[in-house]
Design brief:
single chain, 261 residues, mainly alpha, 12 helices, 2 strands
Length: 261
Amino acid sequence: MNIQHINNSIEPQKNILLQHPLYNKVKTIEDLQCFLESHVYAVWDFMSLLKALQSKLTCTTTPWFPTTNPQTRYLINEIVLAEESDVTIDGRRQSHYEMYIEAMDDCGANTTEIKQFLGEINSLQNIFVAIKTSHLHPNIKAFLDFTFNAIEHGKPHEIAAAFTFGREDLIPSMFTSIIKSFQENLPDTDLSKLIYYFERHIELDADEHGPMAMEMITELCGEDAQKWKEVEEVSKLALEKRIGLWNAIEEHIADKKLATT
């Protein structure tokens, strides 16, 4: 088994995501705000997947010891550098999550709920309780549960599978569809910060992070058939949870339209 086999195996789920009706449902600034207010949870938990991999593949404690594989160490550190401290549209340093929050503010989207959710996590010191007791859509809860179960119980190659096939490999094509939809449906709205965020992800993931993440999977699995099988299983589940997230956002937009008519 190899990367090509995984790509062939997950193609049906990827096609569902790339052709999801959600993209054509974002027609007004209110629709966009609904999208951002739900999608931000995926932007945030991506950072946790990223740091979980860094913790597994490098030494982040003292005293320091070299980890087994210098190549995976290099790959994840390079990805973390850009994701956690990228250059903003106006030349500052921010994580992609912080960039997204600023873009939400610019679009008039509500950032209070995600900030309160992070505050709850900090207060409870238990991510699973915070997810369970939140008022989030069940599909968003399931999406977050999957991420943090992978982080807590997953082996490095399983976390890397959720990160690579559930996120990095998917993002360039998916975000291109999102940008196209936003620009077509909201031509008179200033979306500069938001478009910059999406374009940075497309650029980084297509040219650098996507190939790096694929190499990381190959390094972690080697010739171990069982590891490749587990990568395939986690990748499919990650994409199914993303489909669930897109369904939830589509539902949220529809419900908000009904409430205002």
